[in-house]
Write a structure and sequence with these properties.
Blueprint lengths: L3 H15 L7 H8 L3 H13 L3 E5 L3 E4 L1 H5 L8 H18 L2 E8 L2 E8 L13 E3 L5 H8 L3 H11 L13 H10 L6 E6 L6 E11 L2 E12 L5 H28 L1
Antiparallel strand pairs: 1-2, 3-4, 3-8, 4-5, 6-7, 7-8
Length: 259
């Protein structure tokens, strides 16, 4: 049986895809898909909330969101943003020898839209866009810390508290808000975990990226080290990684201000 609302949603997605990442207005979408403006707006609201569409602005309209690209595991999400960040990511990779992550949150979901892995295989995959955990990761937490109270409440309402072991200090909405209040919005968030299959220590470091004062994503570094590594050497390496991350984020934010 044909589901009319689903068919309309697919027509909207196909039209956005035909736009080749150029924004399509609500009026244009309504005309091109043969859907009334009100119906089109309702469908777009759902697509945006699920990450399949992204609203660029009220006047410019919509483009495909990261979830649409994630379906195929190919292609590039927001080429301009990635192209701007990629040279800095390569520089960070060379200097830090860490995996480098570029993350955004769209429609209450976190996506890694680009990354560079190390030979220690922090990631399992081939560079595709991927949904990722919003609570467990440093990039997710720093973006959460820069959200409004309403946005945090929406995410908590959708996902509930973190799963066991994801964020030990958080088991309720109140504790989530408390932990987020402790994070400085323009500083580095650090996470530590033990990799199950080999016992390696996984350290995540992330800082928010801003354009015109608004958080547009996060840049992260992931380091894999031996559990028996000398404490002094670990501390010195962490100091170096954080210094590099601050430099990298500052450069990307500078470039974003001119883009």
């Amino acid at each position: 049986m044909e589901i009319k609302s689903l068919k309309k949603a697919l027509r909207i997605l196909n039209t956005l895809s035909d736009g080749q990442n150029k924004p399509v207005t609500l009026s244009e979408l309504s005309l091109l898909t043969g859907t009334t403006k009100s119906t089109c707006a309702h469908i777009l609201s759902t697509l945006v909330s699920e990450g399949y569409a992204e609203r660029v602005s009220h006047t410019k309209g919509y483009v495909l969101g990261p979830a649409a690209y994630c379906l195929s595991r190919y292609g590039k999400y927001d080429d301009e943003f990635i192209s701007l960040c990629r040279p800095v990511m390569r520089w960070l990779y060379r200097k830090s020898e860490c995996a480098v992550i570029l993350a955004v949150i769209q429609g209450s979901k976190k996506f890694i839209i680009d990354y560079i892995d190390t030979d220690k295989r922090v990631f399992q995959g081939n560079g595709e866009i991927r949904p990722d955990d919003i609570y467990r990761t440093a990039t997710g937490r720093i973006i959460l810390a820069n959200m409004t109270e309403e946005q945090v409440k929406e995410i908590y309402g959708k996902y509930g508290p973190p799963a066991d072991g994801e964020w030990e200090q958080v088991n309720s909405y109140e504790s989530l808000c408390y932990e987020l209040s402790r994070l400085e919005k323009n500083s580095i968030v650090t996470t530590k975990s033990v990799r199950e299959y080999d016992g390696a220590i996984m350290s995540g470091y992330a800082e928010a990226l801003f354009k015109n004062g608004e958080c547009v994503g996060a840049l992260g570094l992931a380091d894999c080290s031996d559990a028996n590594e000398d404490a002094a050497a670990t501390a010195e390496r962490e100091k170096k990684i954080k210094k590099l991350l601050v430099s990298g984020c500052s450069e990307i934010c500078r470039r974003l201000s001119y883009s």
